[in-house]
TrEMBL record:
Protein name, per record: Uncharacterized protein
InterPro entries linked to this entry: Rab_GTPases_membrane_traffic, Small_GTP-bd, Small_GTPase
Family: Belongs to the small GTPase superfamily. Rab family.
GO terms assigned for molecular function: GTP binding; GTPase activity
SMART domains cross-referenced by the UniProt entry: RAB (SM00175), RAS (SM00173), RHO (SM00174)
Record-linked CDD domains: Rab
């Protein structure tokens, strides 16, 4: 898949409620490890990662970690503009974070480009692997939501690093395969 010279950079924004693991996901995506110090994101954090496509072409990913705290939404939401991809993150052990996805999606639809790639990410899979009683968001529920909105979703664990690289590859592939790659 050949990409025009000017399209060697993708902006990917992480949104979702506070404490769903956006900062940990960003750290895993960029550094391959969890952050040493855990502090809530205030406003927006930014990181970059070089990514090699299957055709060996290098692209630069700008990954924007936004605060999920209500008081910082006015700072966070503008970072949806010009994003090529958006991770909509919730915690599979906290139903309230899933219940907020509709509101987050409404914000995305109002602010982001109409052809942005949106992927729903259910985080904290490690907590339910051996104890399904901790799961508050059932797979069928997420599948219905994703189907209704025509979105891709995955469950991952940033703590154990399960499927984190896979969710990045899936996002980049979806961006590359969409028509948005060829427009600014």
């Amino acid at each position: 898949m050949d990409m025009p010279e000017e399209m060697k950079q993708f902006k990917i924004t992480l949104v979702g409620n506070t404490q769903v693991g956006k900062t940990h996901l960003c750290s895993r995506l960029v550094l391959g490890k969890l952050p040493k110090v855990i502090i809530p994101t205030i406003g927006v954090e930014f990181a970059q990662k070089k990514y090699q496509l299957s055709n060996n072409q290098q692209i630069n990913l700008q990954i924007w970690d936004t605060s999920g705290q209500e008081r910082y939404k006015q700072i966070s939401l503008p970072h949806l503009k010009k994003a090529k991809g958006i991770y909509l993150v919730y915690d599979i052990t906290k139903k309230a974070t899933f219940d907020q996805l509709e509101e987050w999606l409404d914000n995305i639809r109002q602010i982001a480009d109409p052809d942005v790639t949106i992927m729903i990410i259910g985080n904290k899979l490690d907590k339910v692997i051996n104890n399904d009683e901790l799961r508050e968001v059932q797979l069928e529920q997420v599948k219905r939501f994703a189907d209704l909105h025509k979105l891709t979703f995955m469950e991952i664990s940033v703590y154990s690093d399960e499927d984190v690289e896979k969710c990045l590859t899936k996002m980049v592939e979806e961006i590359c395969n969409s028509s948005q790659v060829y427009s600014k």
